[in-house]
């Protein structure tokens, strides 16, 4: 679901992830979501990759858990998904 492939070691400094986890409130209609949802990363395929992924994202997760109660960015992300899913369901089926 996107074109930008990242490495696990780069996740901790990824601007999009840092903004999502920050104290900044991101409204559901912000163009930020298009960029974040275009971000693509392959899931870990080994225990070593999983450890690298976990260690690279641990600080971001802690920051997100601390800031989300004030920002509501997870709620905004859910709203974006609901809006896009509704749009997809309402679109005419092109398989016919």
UniProtKB/TrEMBL annotation:
The keyword Lipoprotein applies. It comes from the Eukaryota. Keywords: Lipoprotein, Myristate. It holds the Pfam family Dymeclin. GO terms for cellular component: Golgi apparatus. GO terms for biological process: Golgi organization. Belongs to the dymeclin family. This is Dymeclin.
